[in-house]
Write a structure and sequence with these properties.
mainly alpha; 219 residues; elongated
Length: 219
Amino acid sequence: MARKAPRRTAERILEVTLELFNRFGEPNVSTTLISAELGISPGNLYYHYPAKDELINSLFERYERALGELLGASEGVRNVEDAWFFLHSLFELIWQYRFLYRDLNDLLSKNRLLETRFQAVLKNKTRAVRHVLDGMSRHGAVNIDSRDVEPTATSMVVVLTYWLSFEYVRDPRHALEPENAQQALLRGAWHVLNLLTPYLEPAQRQHLQQLTGAYGSPP
């Protein structure tokens, strides 16, 4: 049992670090604060994660794995309802690791590894959105010219990536608080999916309106 203790400590460190990063923003959280929150010595923290970047990279690896599994579901999207739940699931995962998106530009400027790997994340997101558009097109949910697929997919990924930043700028004191999460995520999913409105078949457009009405129309 003693051999498993370091692993449990390492996991706990990541859990608390994620909570603090999400609550205060990564630049505002020091390793001293993390060790104090955990009730361990700074030396114990450094034993598991000798640098703050290692904490960030480890959390990013978790996010990256979860994202990869979720993006695989894009190939099963056939209509507006499938797309709605797929996008909302993406936003829920982004919310779980929201410090990455809240402080994205700052993180990338300081961490070369993260910069490279986040570029891959963007490519994977764009590929997944193209799968969504392809699946919806094949099943008659959208009618989109092939020339419009790439710019539409890119626009959807831009909103996916920077939506929480927009929410934060709009209301810095409240936007990223847990009690406001659900509405923020619903708004994000709606605005991404709304980019498809010009291409949606009439019945699918009506269904999107019904979905947004059921969950509360975004402002």
